[in-house]
Amino acid sequence: MTMSDKHFRSSPSFRIRHWRFEERSEPVPRRREGESHPVMDLPDEYEIFEFTSGYDPQKITEFVESGGWGVGGYNEKRGKMYLAPHFGNRRNIHMGIDVWAPAGEPVYAVLDGEVAYTANNAQKGDYGGTIVLRHKVDGEKIFALYGHLSLKSLERSKAGDVVQAGDIIGWLGDESENGNWPPHLHYQLSRKDPGEADMPGVVSEQERDKALKLYPDPRTILGNIY
Predict the structure, then answer these.
(1) CB-based contacts of 22: which residues, under 8 Å, 6+ apart?
(2) Looking at residue 111, what is its pLDDT?
(3) On the chain, which terminus has fewer CB atoms closer than 10 Å, C or N?
(4) Is 221 inside a domain boundary?
(5) Sign of the torsion formed by the C-alpha atoms of 164, 221, 216 and 22
(6) Dist. CA 25–CA 44, nearest whole Å
């Protein structure tokens, strides 16, 4: 029994499937060598989580504590996942990509740029340690949010710091510092300057069309990680 078989059978509230690098299709342009760097040290094989039918934080925590890695998708309507009061019981369309991995794993600047904003969004269900980088892509400013980081990350990366692709900007936080989530990175792009280390990571159905234009698919920069 593979790790994915084990967790799928014991977790009917969400779907999980295995992913191999060489099996990836090409719906979005792949990153080119020398232009960008992987956001994390993803292994050659990892799991893809689909939370459309539900979310089991205990199973996800067990998965990452066992050394597992997984990716969660963009523009996914997620069931029973965003229950904290600030979500208002209506925001459930995911505007970023998640990388689920053990706490302490390093997180990298994907492109050259600078640190625009940092904050500890400490409210339960929020981002915890958060860093926003400012990049320029084809002449356009683009902002990249890294959420659910450790507080140590905010000591390493300060607003105004210049970063190069491949620089470590922080590390995944544990549940005590990442907004009370199983360890993972939330990576999100914005065409608009957020003005602070925050972006709406999920939006409502009514906001979806507008949000998809403002917060583009992170795979345009990360490549086809799922």
Answers:
(1) none
(2) 97
(3) N
(4) no
(5) negative
(6) 15
- pLDDT value of residue 2: 41
Q: How many CB atoms lie within 10 A of CB 217?
A: 17
Amino acid at 123: Q
Write down the H helix ranges in the chain.
Answer: 3-10, 57-65, 151-156, 208-214, 219-222
Query: In this structure, which long-range contacts are made by residues 56-62, counting pairs with CB atoms below 8 Å and at least 24 apart in sequence?
Result: 56/11, 56/13, 56/14, 57/181, 57/182, 59/7, 59/10, 59/11, 59/14, 60/100, 60/182, 60/184, 61/175, 61/182, 61/183
Q: Residue 92: which CATH number? A: 2.70.70.10
Residue 42: φ, ψ to 5°: -60, 135
pLDDT for 154 equals 99
Residues 209, 9 contacting (CB under 8 angstroms):
no
pLDDT < 70 positions in the chain: 1-34, 79-91
Q: Residue 165 is part of which domain span?
A: 3-20+36-215
Taking the C-alpha atoms of residue 77 and residue 198, their distance in angstroms, rounded to an integer, is 20
Is 26 within a domain? no
Tally of domains in the chain: 1
Instruction: Confirm if 28 and 223 have CB atoms less than 8 A apart.
Output: yes
Question: For residue 33, what pLDDT is reported?
Answer: 43
Residue 92's pLDDT is 86
For residue 87, tell me if it sits in a domain. Answer: yes
Q: 224 in a domain, yes or no? A: no
- Is residue 101 within 8 A of residue 172, CB to CB? The reply is yes
Alpha helices in 41-89 (DSSP H): 57-65
